[in-house]
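Exercise: predict the fold of this chain.
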Amino acid sequence: MRMRQERESRAQQNGGRASNWRVVPDCSTEIVGERASSAGVFLFSLVLFLLVACVVMALGWAIADGFTLPLLAVAVVAGLLAIASCHIAQEWEKVVVLRLGRFNRVSGPGLFWTIPVAESNVMRVDTRVRVTAFYAEETLTADLVPLNVDAVLFWHVWDAAAACTEVGDFNRAVEMAAQTALREAIGRAAAAEVAIRRNQLDRELKKVLEEKVAPWGIAILSVEVRDILLPKELQEVMSLEAQAEQRKKARIILMEAEHDIFETLDEMEELVGGPEAVARLRTMHLLNESLREGKGTVVIPSAFAEGFNDPALDAVKDILAK
């Protein structure tokens, strides 16, 4: 929704011409869901600090037989080192740990320890399924028809080390790779193929993206094309083409039905009394179908009125007149 609003506002600023600005994916689509509260981690760090400081002070008290300021300073430093080396990762998080600037390991989820000063937590990677919305604005097809296509990408990080060390910003990289693959797929096909073969476009995009992002430790779960917007003129032309195709199919089916009916009537020729009787029977069937489907009136010529022109009837009329 936010992307569409930005598109409309920019199009209005450019005088209604949406093609005068570049398509930029919305990074806000990569928010990784509801975030866990840090109150528990803070409380754990506080308890650990107090526990380590109290233990150091107790040992120093036993050794020095008294409380001194250097002992307090040592206890505080020991507590700070303890909380600096103890970390907690959520169930869905993987933490990349570097030792003196070089990759050392991937830790988490749960409680893990690091060496203060020598080791550092570079990045916490969310391994849950992510959703990225991307689109192609007025992209030309193989037959030079501009299309607007909106799609959704479902993916997740399965190798946190590769995602952090092989690419600078894997969120942005996935967005741009998906958008580029969508534009290339649209450019290789005609407008009608893109509009009709949506499932094939989904599979093609998924295959291309899997090959692209596999070295980054990212797995593509699915790609779904949400909407394909054709120019209004092309929609009308395709609608007329579809109507003509349906009429063609209907006529072919009607002709096949007529062929079957005539074959059946030929088999009934001896039963109903010859070809003329068969033709009259078929005429009656057609008349019945026309009256059933429509609400018109059929006028059939008849010889009933010719009986009123008989000379005997004229004589009767003269007698009655006298």
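Check your answer against the key: The first strand starts at residue 86 and ends at 89.
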